[in-house]
Protein 1
Amino acid sequence: MTTRVVLHPIRGLPLVRPGDDLAELLAASLAADDLSLADGDVLVVAQKVVSKAEGRLVRLADVTPSAAAVDLAARVGKDPRLVEVILGESRAVLRTVPGVLIVETRLGFICANAGVDHSNVAGDEEWVALLPADPDASAATVRAALRRRSGAEVAVLINDSHGRPWREGAVGVAIGAAGIAAVADLRGRLDLYGRPLRATTVGTIDELAAAASLVMGQADEAVPAVLVRGVAFATDDGGARAVQRAAGRDLFR
Amino acid sequence: MTTRVVLHPIRGLPLVRPGDDLAELLAASLAADDLSLADGDVLVVAQKVVSKAEGRLVRLADVTPSAAAVDLAARVGKDPRLVEVILGESRAVLRTVPGVLIVETRLGFICANAGVDHSNVAGDEEWVALLPADPDASAATVRAALRRRSGAEVAVLINDSHGRPWREGAVGVAIGAAGIAAVADLRGRLDLYGRPLRATTVGTIDELAAAASLVMGQADEAVPAVLVRGVAFATDDGGARAVQRAAGRDLFR
C-alpha cells in the first residue's frame, strides 16, 4: 500500500565548520524540529555541509597552478588556481565551454567543475569546497551515528545538483548513500495485467535526492538536510557508486 | 519559509479508456481520497493514463513496417512493426543497442523507444501506447478543467521515466507542464554570505516529476497521479518544452 510521502526540511543547523560532528548537529536540529527518526526514514544531507564538516576546503592563495591548468584556464576564462584544483579532483576533462569544465571526477561523477564551488564556503572568495573524498563512507558514518543515537534503521543520502545532457536546469542527484539500494531492480515484476514490466531499473536514490533538492532549494545551508518519510526502499547497500554506469555500458561517452 | 512538502498518492482511478475525461476521473479520485485542490498544489499525472485517455494506442497488427524498420529491427532484435511505430514518433535515431533505440522524438525528448511501450496497455500484447501528441497541451487541458471545478490555482505535470547517460536507473521527468515555470532561474540570487549563487538554473518540474515517480513506483496505473503540496514555484508558463536544451547548447550530442 503506497502511503503519502512527507519531506521535512531540517533547519536550524549552525554554519558548519571543519571538524564539526555532523551527525550530532543533525540530531540536534531534528530534535529542535520535534522530529525523531523512525525505521524507514531517509535523511538527505546537502553535499556542501558534509564537505565543510570534513574540512574539504582549499584556499586558492595556497595553490600553484600547473602549466596545463594555466592553459586550460585561459581557454575557458577561469581562475588558473581554481582550474588546478578542479583538475586535481578529475580523472578526465570531457568537454569545455566558457566558464565550465565538464569532467569525470576521481569518484566517477560526470559534472561541472568537479563539484568544486565557491559559494557558501567560509564567507571568503579565496576558499573553495571540494566534494567529500568518499561520499559513501561519509553517508555510512552519519548513518552509523544516527542509528546509535536513535536505534532507528534509517538510510542516509548525500545530494548535490548536477546539470544534464539534453535538458536545462540542474537536478538533485545522490553522490553518497548508506542503508539503501541505489537502484531498484524491477525486472521480473508484473504490471496490472500480469505481464512483465519493460522498464528494468529505477534510480531510487536519485529520485530521493531530487525530491530533497526541491525542499532545500539552492540555499542549501538554510535547509541543509531533508527527512523523507514514507518511501519504501530496498536496504541492500552498495553505495551511490552503484549508480555509476561503466563507460562500456554508456552510449553517450 | 520552507515548509514541509507532502506527496499524496491518488489512487482509485478506474482503468482509463480512450475518450475518458481524465480531469473528471482525477477529480473523483481526489474527492474519494478526501483531498481538495488548493492554490499552489501540483498534480503530477503519469504519461500512460494521459496517452490512454487520448487514445494514443496503436495495434501492431495494423502496422506495415517499412524496409528501414525491418532492417533496424533485425539489427536490434525488436518487432519490425514496433520499430515502425517508434520511427514514426522520432526525428532521429541517436544510438542503438540490442532491444533499445535511443531516439530524439518528434516532441524533442531523447529517450528509449520514443516512449512507445507495451506495458499496462489494454491487456493485449498487440497494442502499444504512444506519448501524448502534445503533452503541454494535455497538461493545460487537465489544468483548465481542474481549475474550473475547484477554483484553485494549480499546476499540472505529466511525467514519464527516462534513462540517462552516465547513471544507472530511470528517473521521473516532466514531459508536459501547465501553470508552472519549467526551470527556476536563480541567477542574481545571493547565498548566505551575500554573494551571487554560481548555479544558474534548477530543473524544477523534473525534480517534481522525480518526486512523484517515487510515489507512483513503476506500477503507474495503481498510483496514476500524485498531488504535491508545499513546493513554491514560479507560474510563468512555458510548458515542459522549455526544458529541452537546443542541440547547439548541448555538449553531449
Protein 2
Amino acid sequence: MLQGPDELRAAVDDYLARLSLAPDLGRLQESMRYALESGGKRVRPVLCLAVSEAAGGEVEHVLPAAAAVELVHTFSLVHDDLPALDDDDERRGRPSAHVAFGEGVALLAGDALLAEALRLALTYDDQGVARELTEATLGMIGGQFRDITGDDADLAAVERLKTGKLLAAAVGLGLRAARVPEDEQGPWRTFGDELGLLYQIVDDILDGDGFAERLGMEGARRLADEAAANAHERLAAIPFDTSVLRGLVDELAVRTG
Amino acid sequence: MLQGPDELRAAVDDYLARLSLAPDLGRLQESMRYALESGGKRVRPVLCLAVSEAAGGEVEHVLPAAAAVELVHTFSLVHDDLPALDDDDERRGRPSAHVAFGEGVALLAGDALLAEALRLALTYDDQGVARELTEATLGMIGGQFRDITGDDADLAAVERLKTGKLLAAAVGLGLRAARVPEDEQGPWRTFGDELGLLYQIVDDILDGDGFAERLGMEGARRLADEAAANAHERLAAIPFDTSVLRGLVDELAVRTG
C-alpha cells in the first residue's frame, strides 16, 4: 500500500526534525533549523519519496536523499532572501533568516545547509546520488545568476535551470534510491521535466509574471492544463502504480501558494 | 624524483586555469575564475600534492582533489569578504569579488565554488574524498560562525575549526588519492595537525592577534618554532622521502604574508 502525499509530507517533516547536523556547527544549527522548519509544502522531497515508492523503493531508504534535496532548496531560499539578492524580509509569514539571525549568520547558515545536503547524499553507496544533486545545484545557481543579471533572453531557459533542475533531481534521486536501472529511468525523468514545467507555469500564474505576463492569465492557465495532461500521459506509460504521483500532479496544478 | 613546492604550485595554477566549470553557470564563471586567480600561495593544494607524492601517489591523480580543497578555500574567502561578514574591499591587492562583480554575484559565485569543489571531489571512486572534504567544510563554517558571534571562549578551538580543518583535509585527501591504507594514515594526519597549528600561530603573528595577543610576539614566535619542530619530528617518523614536506614546513614557519 503506497503512502499518500500527506503521509509522505509527515515523514519528511519528521525526518528533518530529527536530522542531526554536524556538531562542529555549534549554535549555527539554530538558524539552519529555523530555515528548515519554515512550514513549506515539501514539494521536492515528497516528489522524491513518491517516485521512489512507486518504483518499488523503501521510504526509509530514500528519506536522506529526499531531505538532501530539501536542504539544497532551503539553502537557496536563505541566500535568495538576503539583501544582496531579493532582499525579502519575510518568508512564509515569518521573518527571513537574516532578519531573525543577522545577515552574516544567514549567509553561513545557507552555506552549511548546502554542505549538509551533500553530506546526506554521500551516505549512499551510489555516488550518483551526490553527483546528481551537485549538478542540479550548479544548474540552479546558474539560473539564479541569469535571473539577477538578466543574462539570458530566454525566460523559459532561466526557469528550467532555477526551479526545473532541482525538481528533476528530486525525481532522479528517487529513482536512484529505488535502484531503478538507468536504461529504465527515461519515462520517469520525462515525467519529472513535465512536472517542472507545470510547477513553473503555476508559479508564474500566482506571481503574475513570466508565462502569465507573456501569454496572459488564460493562455498560461491553458498551458498549465496542457503540462498537467502531459505529466499524466507520461505516468500512464509507466507500468507501476503511479496513483500517488497522479495526485501530486493535480495538487500542483491547482495550488494557490 | 619528487617535485618541489614551486613546481607543485605551477601544476595547481595550471590545473585551475584549465578547469572546466559547469556550463549551466554561464557568465557566473567569470567571477569564479576572478576569485580563483587571485594569486594566493596555494598552501592547501600544494600540501595535498606534496603529501600524495611523498606517499607514492601520482600528481595527475591527486590534482582534482587538491583543486577541490582550493575551491573550498576560495569559496570561504569570497563569502568572508562580503559586507555581511568581514566587509573587506580588497583581497591580495585587488578588489574583492563583490566589489568587482556586485554582492549578489559574489554570493552566488561563492555558492558555486563550493558546489564545484564537491563535483571535483566526486570524480574519485573513493567516496571518502568527497566525505572528508564535506566534513572539513562544515567544520570551517562552524569556525567562521564562532568567530563572528564570539560563541566560543576558546580561541584555539575556533581557529582549529576555521583554518585547521581544511589544512587537515588537504593532508587527508592527499593520502586518499595516494591510496594510503587508513591504518597507516595516523602519522601523516598528526603531521597535518601540527602544520595547521603552525600555520595559525604564524597567521596570528602577522596579524598581531590571537596567539600573538595572548602570548606576546616573542612567546608566539617560540610557540611557532615549537610547532615547526614538532611537525619535523612527525615527518621524521614517516618512512618515506618527506623532503618536500620539510621544505613546506620551513616555508610556512617564516612566511611573511
